[in-house]
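ingest -> validate -> predict -> emit
validate: passed (alphabet ok, no gaps, 275 aa)
predict: started
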Amino acid sequence: MSILNYAIPPILQLETTTACNLACPFCLRAELCGSDEYLSFDAFRQIIDGTRCRFVTLHGWGEPLMNQDLPRMVRYAAGHRKSVNFTTNATLIHEKVDALLASGLDAIAFSLPDIDRCTPIIAENISRFVAERAKRGQKKPETCINIAIMEENLDQLDRMLAMVRDFGVDTVVFERSFPWTDSLQKKESDMFQGIRDTAGQFGLKVKFPPDHTSPCPLMRYTLFVRWNGDVAPCCYRANVAIGNINSDSMVRIMQNRARFLKSQRSDPVCNSCRV
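emit:
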């Protein structure tokens, strides 16, 4: 097995909370989270102090801004030369604009799953955040709209691009939803090209996920840690613990990850994922 399977991934994804103020029907939070929990700042600090990961992503199966310590966490990680980002549903961003713009945050993604869930308040919050960044003459944090492609929103993609062009964000990022079905896989190439064409008409910069490979690149390059320190193969397998960052050595965790990577081709969930 390649030494890459034992190397500590460059991305540390930390679940700051399992609490959320929305209940989107397609989200896996209800299946993967039994209650509303929060990563404490002390636990966060210990994890950051003990990791060599270069990039820190502060979201899991909850709304990150539900954790009142989030701006403080960003400042701490950025102060330790980590590149920090997180994804938010944008409902609470107006409460933290000043703190986040002064925190050293490198990137922020606003998740928009479909048109109906982009309420006027969310649209205003995103536009206000981007406008305030520009007012301060800052290039950071980089801003993007994050759209997970699903069967439920396939007929909305062009309208979603038309809707977000006025937000002023830097990029629109498209992701594969979990699970990425055979039907979506067959449509992918034409779908992505159609999005490129529409984005070009609107003057929008778009990004797409890399080709899926096995073993999974998501797991190989990201160390996913839950609010309680449990290390999971990835966010979609959050209920599968392969160690705990608070109690197990990193050597043991990486050995467990290597064994899981080796078994991915025979794992029924991973084998059909394609994300």
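The beta strands are 11-14, 55-57, 83-88, 107-111, 142-149, 171-176, 206-207, 222-225, 231-232.
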